[in-house]
Design a protein that fits this description.
The chain has about 60 residues and is mainly alpha-helical. The protein has one domain. The chain is about 70% helix and about 5% strand. It has four helices and two strands, in the order H-H-H-E-E-H. The chain has a two-stranded antiparallel ribbon. Strand 1 and strand 2 form a beta hairpin. Helix 1 packs across helix 2. The radius of gyration is 12 Å and the shape is elongated.
Length: about 60
């Protein structure tokens, strides 16, 4: 399955597709959640929520 198909399924609300995208972007989310050399769990969760919101709002 390609990225576009996964994104379309996630946008339609398919939970497994949303999880696949979160896993795909996990390294970037973790990198963004490191502040001052320390991992911030709350920031990581906020970044995950923001990604999910962006998936819902994305237009082709």
């Amino acid at each position: 399955m390609n990225f576009k198909e996964i994104l379309l399924q996630a946008k339609a609300g398919q939970e497994s597709a949303v999880i696949a995208l979160l896993e795909m972007y996990k390294p970037l989310l973790i990198k963004g959640a490191i502040v001052g050399g320390r991992f911030d769990e709350d920031l990581y969760q906020e970044l995950c929520i923001t990604l999910i919101r962006c998936i819902r709002m994305f237009r082709f």
